[in-house]
Amino acid sequence: MKILRARFRIVTPMFLGGAEGSPKPGSESEKIARIRVPSFKGALRFWWRALNWGRIWNGTENDIKALRKLFDEEGEIFGTAAGDKGKIRQSRVLLQAAGEFKREYNITRKMLETGHKYLLGMGLYNHNTGVTAAPIKAGEGRDIQLSCCFHRSTKGEHVRQVAEALTVLGCLGGLGARSRRGWGSLALHELQAEGGLSCEYTVPKNCEEFTSLIRKIVEDPAKDTSPFSAFSRETRIDLLNAKRKTPWEALGRVGKELHDYRNFQLFKESGAPSGHRFFPHDRDKMFHAVKGTRPSAHPKRVIFGLPHNYFFKPGNEEAKVSTNAEKWKCTRRASPLLIHIHQFPDGTTAVVQTLLQSSFLPQGVGLEISSDNLPEGPPFDPKPDWQILTDYLDRFKEVDAFEKINTSGKRIRGVLPHE
Length: 419
Description:
The longest helix has 24 residues, at about 35-60. Helix 2 runs antiparallel to helix 3 (about 65-80), helix 2 crosses helix 5 (about 155-170) and helix 4 (about 115-125) packs across helix 7 (about 245-260). The chain is of the alpha+beta class. The protein has helices spanning about 30, 35-60, 65-80, 115-125, 155-170, 205-215, 245-260, 280-290, 325-330, 385-395, and strands spanning about 1-10, 30-35, 95-100, 100, 125, 130, 145-150, 185-195, 235-240, 310, 315-325, 335-345, 350-355, 365-370, 405. The protein has a 4-stranded antiparallel sheet with strand order 3-7-1-8, covered by helices on one side. It has 2 domains: about 1-110 and about 125-205, no CATH class; about 240-405, no CATH class.
């Protein structure tokens, strides 16, 4: 049988439900988690689409035709519930995940720095009670063994594409809640082929090999902006040397940088304002919204993802930016910025930040601002400012905690775009 075997290190705590479902409190299955195969399969499909969109679009240069072909090829490899004619297709690759993992119940608020709390977000962190869920522990010895068993009729090209998706997942991605914010990061530490298969990709052992590998795999990005999160010529991948930091320390520090950049106003330890304000008009617009005055434009920070919430004291008044959900039945837009904490086999830590620039919202979808005292109005035309994310990434040139590198050791460029 044709098999690809991959070993992934869990680098940062992973907020992922186990294969055991909802165990009873105090039971052994509550303390031990097993990775669900559908979680891996969903992540592989995401990275497969991101990698293969450019190849398919460059051959058609038509979004509709390319999307149909992408859907058809994805279904041929991973299966579909129903095709164009209602046909069900079985997956040509069978995934098996091995390993038992303990959950972490002892993450106290004192252990969490500002960056950790910020990256957890409102769903996983409560200012009064702390972390709201028990993640799967990360670190040495917490490795997931994944086997990809291929049907004998699987094309060699499709096997190679799955190997590429496995590799990119273990270099740029992760599993579980808030994986785009660095939680649940996975590092590929081993990739082997059996049953007559050969694998042209090797596990990167340092930053230089990492850069060369990603450039080799992402060699044919789309020439134009993609309609979903995929690699294109506008994609940017930055690799940062964490300078002897542990993955936990690196996660907290990159989280603090993102927090400081997005925050309305920073304060020194003495409590005096530092004057460090990047988006003062965003706060002003939403403050007037909670008082009943409709803003003239949406906040710029929507580029980080939707929905976008604001809270004002006293009274904890709230305002929210989302899509016009009544028409589109979807209020979310995933962040185009992906944070990944990578750990090489020798234990060295790096931070990888990927900007997947694409169409921000489907054509015709607008933004709406809602608050208790704000009357309804027409939706705002979304005007995403991608320079905001570029400026955030450029900030790391001056951050002493990290060194931005590429194959030649320079500090001013990253993995992609190509030099």
